[in-house]
Amino acid sequence: MKKILFTASECTPFVKTGGLADVIGSLPQALIEAKLAEVRVILPLYDEIPAQWKEKMEKVATFDVKVGWRDQQATLYTLKHEGIVFYFLANTLYFTRKGIYGYYDDGERFVFFSQAIIDAFPYLDYTPDVLHAHDWQTGLAVAFAKVAPPTPNLRTVFTIHNIKYQGMMPHQAFDDLFQLPLEHFAGFEWNGMINCMKAGLFHADKITTVSPSYAEEIKDPYYSEGLHTILHQRANDLSGVINGINTNDYHPSKDPHIAVNYSHSRVKKKDNKEVLQKEFGLPVNRDVPMYVAISRLVEQKGFHLLERILDEFLQEDVQAIVLGTGEHEFEQSFSHLAHRHSDKMVTLLKFDEGLARQLYASADFFIMPSMFEPCGLSQLIALQYKTVPIVRETGGLKDTVKPFNEITGEGNGFSFSNYNAHDLLSVMKYSLNVYHNSDAWPRLLKNVNKSQFGWKESAKAYADIYDSFVDAGNNEE
Ligand code: GLC
To answer: Maximum CA pair distance of the chain?
Structure first.
């Protein structure tokens, strides 16, 4: 079995701002349980990580890490959680702060982290065959491992979860923060800046992203955020592997956050709807179709489309709930809409995991019209809670939601292709027709009930990538 060291900037249950944390918190377990790989995970030790975890950590070593001319200290801790060995790298200057991102020196913080990972190798009590790094914060770890390998046969995989965030710094950072000869500059530079994601893409042995469609899309300037040229150069080593969700945790039959547990029962789903309607003062009506959006309220998630059409859609006999926080513009417009249609719509400007799950359990439809979506986990959670997704055909949404076709009876949701508000409106109106069509609706639900998004197949796809290194004769155990 290959030994894999995962690294990322967030991971459930320790620290989370987005879907990346869910993936890092569930894929290693899937690989281990299926006996496909021996995975350990290395993370920054942020102040944010709750004391309940810190108390259980054991100190392994303290060592020096060079960040350009600076000598910084890293302390390596370890913790075993649900059978997985986690490592944490601590440094007071870089990680003892509120929150995890958004500082002027984020670049330098992750230069330190990436270098510290490499320097930690002698202190890990195993020798990884593969370093598997995720997103820009750890792109430099892949680059440093290539330029000065900590062990002779180490291979690297770099996974893009969102190409929009690249970790850019002025080009002077090369001299100021790295310890590398100038000949390596080109591997780190992009459009006159140091770019951590580009460095990962340039140096990794294999590149993956979180859905096959996104793997294609990011070769196109419309989606590439400027990185299409390097992705074309690396196209032979680039593939898309769809994310799974932890179906043990997200399971309506045992989720402690929801009012009435169920497996397939629409009756019990309506019990949940009723609880929700009472809680938020909506007219109690088990049969009115309920549409929900649960998300950060940001442009990426397609809220410009939704805000434009809700007023018209709410003329129909429907209910809608929006849950999330984000950009001021959206918080305002969705609050305003809820105010105008107080008998049909509620906007909840907060993030609350328990409430989110009660919404997934209660709703009939889940709306996710993203502008772009590398994978998307919420549509998978919706399907898992037997809620019909309405999505834009992009990235992982396109790969996991197939549009319902009344003639063939295929499809597990609704979708539209152009980023256009009226296309969203017409597909939402169509979903309403299907809901009221006693022949079509049960057929759609049957397909929803059959949709499965565990990690099984994707874990195998990652293991195949790790094993391809062995097959190339580069790293026999
Ligand atoms: C990012 C992407 C999202 C993906 C997640 C996990 O948050 O925006 O689409 O599901 O990473 O890979």
So the answer is: 71
Which two three-digit tokens encode residue 227? 């990185």
Quick count: other Cβ atoms within 10 Å of Cβ 423? Answer: 17
- Specify burial of residue 389 (Cβ count, 10 A radius: 0-12, 13-18, 19+): buried
Give me Rg for the CA atoms of the chain.
Answer: 23
Q: What pLDDT does residue 477 have?
A: 43
Q: What is residue 351's predicted lDDT score, i.e. its pLDDT?
A: 87
261 CA → ligand 1 middle, Å: 28
DSSP assignment string, 190-207: ETTEEEHHHHHHHH-SEE
Sort strands 58-67 and 70-81 into parallel, antiparallel or unpaired: antiparallel
Residues 6+ apart with CB under 8 A from 457: none
Distance 20 CA to ligand 1 centre (A): 6
**Residue 79: in which H helix or E strand, if any?**
strand 70-81
Q: Which amino acid is at 358?
A: Q
Ligand 1 is surrounded, with C-beta below 6 A, by: 18-20, 23, 161-162, 210, 243, 373-377, 396
Contact 74, 62 (CB under 8 A): yes
Could you tell me the domains of the chain?
A: 3-244+456-474 (3.40.50.2000), 266-450 (3.40.50.2000)
Tell me which residue has tokens 């108390």: 55
Q: What is the DSSP letter of 101?
A: S
Which portions of the chain are predicted below pLDDT 70?
A: 471-477
Cα–Cα distances (Å) from 85 to 17, 167, 375, in that order, read 22, 28, 27
Distance 93 CA to ligand 1 centre (A): 29
Question: How far is Cα 156 from Cα 132, in angstroms, rounded to an integer?
Answer: 6
Strands 319-323 and 84-90: unpaired
Strand order in the sheet with 70-81: 58-67, 70-81, 84-90, 37-44, 2-7, 130-134, 155-160, 206-209, 238-240
Q: In this predicted model, what pLDDT tens digit does every residue of 306-340 receive, in sequence order?
A: 999 999 999 999 999 999 999 999 999 999 999 99
Dist CA 333 CA 338 (whole Å):
9
- Whose CA is closest to atom 5 on ligand 1? 19
- pLDDT at residue number 452: 87
Q: Which of 27, 165, 377 to mutate to test the pocket of ligand 1 (most atoms within 8 A of CB)?
A: 377
